[in-house]
């Protein structure tokens, strides 16, 4: 069975959680490979709403192996809170496993995230203020605290001291903040360690074992390609790599272990936080899409910026991820528009035309989308379950996307419910995806 990687093909919030939830039913393991509780998704199951920030949504299937990989940064307070909330609702969390090598978000990371944003003033990134950037910075500086450190008081205290020391100056305004007291921080994190110990494991090995036993593994990305720290709209990005390549590093597998990469894109575009957005609709139409699509953040509640679908950016996302399929979500939100605009190229400030996503920040900041006009459809499509149930114009829109991006559309979302999807090709033939190369024996 294959390894399938699910990634966001825009600026996050594409509805990856719902697609992962659908595939998880057939999967044996679901592994998150980057990001932290800056991500968030809502799953509606039998009319009940579940919100997740860290735990893979596959947890709703009893006993399913749900892994938080080494590439994730974990706020243990948020994670234990999520586990408690799930258990209180009768959800079996015994399948959860947490990488011993994942890094932790510490109280000082939260303070530094907010302080950093405040200092940037008008130039701020609009982070989720969950401490993500400072936690990844410490990881790269080799001052991070890892999940395994929670299990040893002496090591934990030593590492926290070493991590705080170089930050003394920036943390000075928070000297009186009780969360920074070394003793109480150590005790609080040791308590998290006790609570999480039963879930801590060598998760890379677990993923390998699942793949080796020919089981289906879903690699679940957070955020999206354009928020990637290397390939996105830097510095208006997150501090990890949401692209598919990062699934290998963040889960501990090799590139040959991923057979398919599905890019999830909304039928339009949204973005939270600051940064360039060439197809942004800063007008009543944008407001209308926001209202219809309920475009407010799961994590911070912020209103999302909205705009028409951007083929230039989507083609770029397809390329840097090596997408094998596209899933287009929230198509129903576009029902009722007379005309649908699709951005097929950018016009730069000096009149130059761009059909490739420009690498230069100044070009991108001033780029304006240029559009092709397609027919809209009036019908409510929430009840459509097969391609031919869709109005002609909606099918044409999907065909246009697939043709311009060069990637087939496999799945379409037509409403928030789990059943509100259309498989565009012969139902999920996951089992039919053959392995192409034999696995290496583990060292
Ligand atoms: P951070 O990841 O909190 O550091 O935020 C950096 C940028 O990424 C900000 O623009 C955030 O709004 C954005 N961001 C982070 N996580 C998500 C997400 O899950 N969906 C959408 N945007 C996100």
Give the DSSP E fraction (strand runs of 2 or more residues): 15-25%
The share of residues in helices is: 25-40%
CATH topology of the largest domain: the name is Adenylosuccinate Synthetase, Chain A, domain 3
Corresponding CATH superfamily of the largest domain: Adenylosuccinate Synthetase, subunit A, domain 3
Rg value: 22 Å
Q: How many domains make up the coordinates?
A: 2
Order of strands in the sheet with most strands: 9-7-5-2-10-1-11-15-19-20
Attached small molecules: inosinic acid
Mean pLDDT: 93
Number of strands: 20
The CATH architecture of the largest domain can be named as Alpha-Beta Complex
- By secondary-structure content and strand pairing, the structural class works out as alpha/beta
Low-pLDDT stretches: 431-443
Distance between the termini: 22 Å
CATH class of the largest domain: Alpha Beta
**Per the principal axes of the C-alpha atoms, what is the gross shape?**
globular
In DSSP terms (H or I, runs of 4 or more residues), the helix count works out at 13
Query: Main beta sheet: strand number and arrangement?
Result: 10 strands, mixed
């Amino acid at each position: 069975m294959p390894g399938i990687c699910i990634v966001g093909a825009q600026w996050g919030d594409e509805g990856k959680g719902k697609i992962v939830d659908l595939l998880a039913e057939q999967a044996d393991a679901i592994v998150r490979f980057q990001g932290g509780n800056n991500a968030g998704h809502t799953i509606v199951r039998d009319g009940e709403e579940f919100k997740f920030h860290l735990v893979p949504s596959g947890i709703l299937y009893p006993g399913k192996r749900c892994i938080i990989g080494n590439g994730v940064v974990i706020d243990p307070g948020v994670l234990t809170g999520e586990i408690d909330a799930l258990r209180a609702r009768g959800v079996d969390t015994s399948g959860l496993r947490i990488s011993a090598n994942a890094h932790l978000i510490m109280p000082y990371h939260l303070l530094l995230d907010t302080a950093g944003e405040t200092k940037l003033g008008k130039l701020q990134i609009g982070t989720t203020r969950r401490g993500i950037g400072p936690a990844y910075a410490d990881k790269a500086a080799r001052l991070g605290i890892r999940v395994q450190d929670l299990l040893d008081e002496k090591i934990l205290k030593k590492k926290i001291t070493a991590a705080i020391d170089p930050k003394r100056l920036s943390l000075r305004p928070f000297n009186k903040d009780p969360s920074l007291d070394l003793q109480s921080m150590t005790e609080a994190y040791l308590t998290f360690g006790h609570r999480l110990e039963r879930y801590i494991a060598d998760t890379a090995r677990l993923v390998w074992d699942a793949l080796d036993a020919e089981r289906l593994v879903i690699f679940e990305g957070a955020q999206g390609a354009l928020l990637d720290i290397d390939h996105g709209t830097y510095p208006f990005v997150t501090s990890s790599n949401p692209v598919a390549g990062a699934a290998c590093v963040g889960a501990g597998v090799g590139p040959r272990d991923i057979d398919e990469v599905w890019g999830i894109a909304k039928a339009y575009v949204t973005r939270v936080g600051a940064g360039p957005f060439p197809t942004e609709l800063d007008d009543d139409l944008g407001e209308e899409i926001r209202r219809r699509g309920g475009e407010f953040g799961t994590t911070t509640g912020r209103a999302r910026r909205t705009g028409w679908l951007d083929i230039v950016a989507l083609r770029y996302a397809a390329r840097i991820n090596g997408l094998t399929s596209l899933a287009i979500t929230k198509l129903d939100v576009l029902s009722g528009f007379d005309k649908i605009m699709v951005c097929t190229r950018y016009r730069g400030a000096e009149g130059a035309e761009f059909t490739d996503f420009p690498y230069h920040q100044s070009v991108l900041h001033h780029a304006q989308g240029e559009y092709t006009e397609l027919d809209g459809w009036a019908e409510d499509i929430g009840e459509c379950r097969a391609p031919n149930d869709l109005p002609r114009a909606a099918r044409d829109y999907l065909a246009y996307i697939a043709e311009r991006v060069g990637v087939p559309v496999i799945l379409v979302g037509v409403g928030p419910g789990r059943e509100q999807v259309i498989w565009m090709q012969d139902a999920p033939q996951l089992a039919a995806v053959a392995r192409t190369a034999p696995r290496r024996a583990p060292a």
